[in-house]
Each structure stands twice: as structure tokens, then as C-alpha cells.
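Workshop exercise sheet. Pairs work together: one partner reads the sequence aloud, the other fills in the structure field after running the prediction. Swap roles for the next sheet.
Pair: D.N. / O.F.
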Amino acid sequence: MAGETKITLIGNLADNPTLQYTDGGAAVVNMTVIANEKVYDSATRAWRDGDSLSMPCVAWRGYAENIAASLTKGARVIVTGTLKQRSYQPADGPRRSFTELLIDEVGPSLRFATAEVTKASGKRPALQQAAPQQAAPAATWPPRPTAPPATNPWPTPAMAG
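Structure field:
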């Protein structure tokens, strides 16, 4: 769509991806990618850590289940997607806003690792038989979405063939 802010981020996963299910049964995965900048210091002639960016990322449905089954904490990943800003009003405070990356594509970086690709069989990935997990408590930050965004390109479970 026109006007979307698309970015590509290369970094490491801060934690294992968190797979949850909405009340409607749609899978959603949340993960945080941390991109660290390396800066060359000419005075010491050595590389040092620069600024870092911590970006919350989210994906939906079968894609979410594939991500949760494939990636783990510390994995170097390449993520591309659309920046989305959301806000919410907690019962005990002022309105809060945060930015997250709605994932279009994600994969392991092969610069320092190898990967074996296995095509997911059928319409649902391997985690299809897993019991749905409880939704995140309302007090988590950033708040987890309870329904996919209106611009979500994936069909809802009722529409899936």
C-alpha cells in the first residue's frame, strides 16, 4: 500500500518468540529484535559498541506458528515489514503509544550460521496440534494485540479453506 513505512532490520532475538492465541483462535507471535551498531574508534584503532535499537515485532496466524517453531533467543535474523504505531489507554494512567514492526518476511542470517529449510506441510504448520496458550495478561507492556490489524494480508480462520 502507498504511504506505509517499510524497513529491513538485521539483529538478534532478545528472547524466544512468544506464541499466543486470540479468543478467536488466531495465532500471534511477538518477538523483539535488537540491532547493535558497531563503531570504529580511530583513536584506539578498535571497534566498539555504538547505539542499539530494540524493535518489537509481530506476525499472525500460520506465519506466527512457523516463526515460533523456527527461531530461538539469540538467533541472528533479517526482518522486513511495516512500522505501525498503536496506542492504548490504561485504566490507571495516561494514554500510551508504541511502535512495532508488522512482519512481512523473516529469516535467519546466514553470515555466521547455517540453516536447513523445511517446507511446512498442509495449510497449517507443525504447531497445529499444540494446545492454545492463555492470552497475555492486560498488564503486559507493550500491550499485546487482541485482534489482527484491519490491513492484515492473511485470511481469518473462518475464511481459510
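Discussion prompt: Residues 125-132, 135-139 have pLDDT under 50 and may be disordered. What would you look at next?
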